[in-house]
Specification:
The chain is an alpha/beta fold. The protein has helices at about 5-15, 15-50, 60-80, 85-110, 110-115, 120-125, 130, 135-165, 165-175, 175-215, 215-220, 225-275, 285-325, 385-390, 415-420, 435-440, 450-460, 460-465, 485-495, 515-530, 565-570, 570-584; strands at about 345-355, 360-370, 375-380, 400-405, 410, 420-425, 435, 475, 505, 535, 550-555, 560. It is built from 22 helices and twelve strands. A six-stranded mixed sheet has the order 6-9-10-3-11-12, with helices on both faces. The protein has a four-stranded antiparallel sheet with strand order 2-1-4-5, covered by helices on one side. A two-stranded antiparallel ribbon has the order 7-8. Bound molecules: cytidine-5'-triphosphate and magnesium ion.
Length: about 575
């Protein structure tokens, strides 16, 4: 079966009761629409007959009243089916909601390679524009398909009634149908490719926007506003062109359809009128055919639209599935061994490369870390310090070698349980929209006020928070734009501490704490969070005072571990590296 159809069926299954109500509603609404002209035809024929053969109708008013009752019944049914479009819109929303949650969930479990490939703006477009805008997925699944089903049942019902009244006239009236199919076949392919191009242009613009605003400070500091404006102009220009071609094609299509409609009506008037004059059909039948046909034309033209909007929706489905199915070598599974305690860590002959850039970063790394040990990672910029941390967190996977955490192979560990006992302060801290307090509590929503105060105190934030306009209820922008880099990082340190981690990883805190505050941080950690293991990356040599051991990564990607004194004595490169740094 076609994969899109399969996809749709799975979605419908998940909402089967709503879908069932929709089916019933749709059939009822078509039946009501069909019944109205039919009651009219009965009325016309009756009046005609009463006028022509009065002797057959001794009590004509009884017959008339019966038809009036029929009209009243149709009116009542029409009132009920009036809620149908409203319900349909509601079903659209349900689909939109459930799909967005489904794909969002998948995306949050992707690894960094995913986010290298899909820019934020692109992901946002796929989750919003692709899902909810007019001819896109959620509209298609509810309104699109059911409007088509509505059209289809309306056509079928009309045809049944028409055939049962006069087969010859019916056949003559539906002749334009094959013509429309041919027209559709030739235009649809083109529309499909244009549509896809258009969608790409929209994504592109959102990316461009996201990039320029999130990097607005960089743009401004390099005085490159003009360059960005030009980029943006170009992107807008592309979008304008693709959008125009979609509009043009749509205009041509609707023009063609209009003419088909026109010819079909003329046909009925000619053939039907002729047959009515010859007495082959009644005036009521002529009226019925004319009304049904004009009622049918629009749905008939609308049906091919289903294929058009279907194709559009299928592009959107593919775009969503492309994200969902993008291989993530770290599936972030919830399965595997749960770890409760941090009982040390070891690397055995670990190699890591980034094939995209063709660099081999870490070579045959071997080291052990004891549970309560504090270890400093040193090495020149780009030597792979952050990569070591990412390996431990399971964010990247080694090419070869073995990493064990609490004695369990990292491959077999439930990564979530590992991340529960490890807290990580990234090199580039990021905050979420919300207050400072919310940002810190994020890591441990059950933390008591006391724990919270302790965390901000140890992170050396207490004095600073006092200076903020609304203290810790101060909102930080989407990316904490209103805070300094150092403030942001200290907030993420507090966020890490409030977890009461068994292993604390700090990736380059040099920028956020001066030497004096760093000393306070370490003394406070020792006092308030005793027996916490730590891995620290720092460019400040004074950090050496607060750690037990050093892991030095040389410029060839080899790692050397020992106490500072041991390394100075035994490793020439380490000696030179320190010497270089001390000079600065
Ligand atoms: N790298 C990469 N792709 C990534 C991450 C890193 O190609 N997704 C590369 C970097 O360009 C760098 C090397 O891998 O050349 C090591 O990166 P990293 O571990 O981040 O280096 P650090 O030692 O942490 O560098 P810094 O001191 O600047 O933080
Ligand atoms: Mg780094």
């Amino acid at each position: 079966m076609n994969k899109h159809i399969k996809w749709l069926l799975t979605q419908y299954k998940s909402q089967k009761y709503f879908v069932l109500i929709m089916v019933i509603f749709t059939l009822a609404s078509s039946a009501v629409q069909i019944a109205y002209p039919y009651a009219f035809k009965r009325m016309i024929d009756l009046l005609n007959d009463v006028w022509a053969n009065p002797e057959l109708y001794p009590t004509p008013m009884v017959e008339v009243n019966r038809i009036i009752m029929l009209f009243l019944a149709i009116g009542a049914a029409q009132f009920l089916t009036g809620f149908y479009p409203c319900f349909r819109a509601w079903v659209n929303l349900r689909f939109e909601h459930s799909l967005r949650i489904f794909y969002f969930d998948h995306i949050t479990r992707k690894d960094y390679r995913f986010f290298q490939k899909f820019r934020t703006g692109d992901i946002v477009t796929r989750l919003t524009d692709d899902l909810s805008e007019f001819p896109k997925i959620s509209w298609f699944m509810g309104s699109g398909i059911f409007r088509a089903f509505n059209s289809f049942s309306l056509i079928m019902f009309s045809l049944i009634v028409m055939f049962s009244i006069n087969a010859k006239l019916t056949l003559l009236s539906i002749m334009p149908l094959p013509l429309m199919m041919v027209v559709f076949y030739f235009t649809s392919e083109k529309l499909y490719t244009n549509f896809e191009r258009n969608q790409r242009a929209i994504s592109n613009i959102n990316n461009q926007l996201e990039m320029s605003f999130s990097g607005i400070r960089i743009v401004k500091s390099f005085v490159s506003e003009a360059k960005y404006n030009r980029f943006f102009d170009e992107a807008l220009d592309r979008r304008f062109k693709t959008e125009m071609s979609v509009v043009k094609l749509n205009a041509i299509l609707s023009l063609i359809y209009q003419y088909i409609d026109y010819f079909a009506q003329i046909g009925v008037i000619m053939f039907g009128g002729y047959m009515a004059v010859k007495g082959e059909i009644t005036v009521g039948t002529f009226f019925l055919f004319y009304t049904y046909l004009s009622m049918m034309i629009y749905p008939l033209l609308d049906l091919p639209q289903l294929f058009v909007s279907g194709k559009q929706a299928f592009v959107n489905i593919d775009r969503l599935d492309e994200m969902k199915d993008h291989p993530s070598f770290n599936p972030e599974t919830q399965v595997g061994h749960e770890v409760q305690r941090f009982e040390g860590l070891s690397f055995e002959k670990v190699n890591l490369s980034y094939p995209e850039k063709g660099i081999h970063v870490l070579r045959d790394i071997d080291f052990d870390l004891l549970p309560n040990e504090k270890m400093l990672i040193l090495g020149s910029t780009g030597c792979g310090k952050t990569s070591v941390v990412n390996l431990i967190l399971g964010i990247v996977k080694p090419d070869s070698g073995k990493i064990t955490f609490s004695g369990i192979d990292l491959e077999k560990i439930n990564i979530k349980s590992l991340r529960d006992i490890v807290a990580y302060v990234p090199q580039e801290p990021s905050l979420f929209s919300g207050t400072i307090k919310e940002n810190i509590m994020l890591a441990n929503t059950d933390a008591s006020e006391e724990e919270y105060q302790k965390a901000i105190r140890v992170a050396q934030l207490t004095d600073e928070i006092e200076l903020f306009p609304q203290k810790d209820e101060t909102h930080v922008g989407q990316r904490g734009l209103s805070l300094s880099g150092g403030q942001k990082q200290r907030i993420t340190i507090a966020r890490a501490l409030i977890k009461r981690p068994q292993l604390l990883i700090l990736d380059d805190i040099t920028a956020s704490l001066d030497a004096e505050n760093e000393e306070k941080l370490w003394l406070d950690i020792e006092k308030e969070y005793p027996n916490t293991g730590a891995i620290v990356i720092s460019h400040r040599l004074s950090t050496l005072r607060y750690v037990d051991t050093v892991l030095y990564i040389d410029d060839y990607g080899h790692a050397h571990k020992g106490t500072h004194d041991e390394l100075v004595m035994t490793n020439r490169d380490y000696h030179d590296f320190l010497h270089e740094h001390l000079k600065k």
